[in-house]
Amino acid sequence: MNEDPRARRVAVVSDALLPELRAQLNEGGYGVIQLPPAGLPDDVAAEWLEQVAEHVEEFRRTGYDVVLADDGAYEHGLELPQYAIQPPSTSRLTPET
Hints:
The protein is of the alpha/beta class. The chain has helices at 18-27, 42-61, and strands spanning 9-13, 30-34, 65-69. The protein has a domain at 9-69. Helices cover 31% and strands 15% of the residues. The chain is globular, with a radius of gyration of 16 Å.
């Protein structure tokens, strides 16, 4: 049987932040739960957020580390540690001479 590459870590990520964080989260061994995209009808977003909250509760109950990378598009009530977004590397930049 193959071992789960996510290493028992899950990130709850805003839709707008997902494209820029996807590779970093994957490298860090995180699974992802996506928050709803901005602009959904209120009832659809509420149902989505309810499902997210249920998933988060289950992951936390079973010992997963769950973090949040949120842009504030929705009030979700999730009390999770903030995922530390790494700044872009400057090692490839060279000063102008």
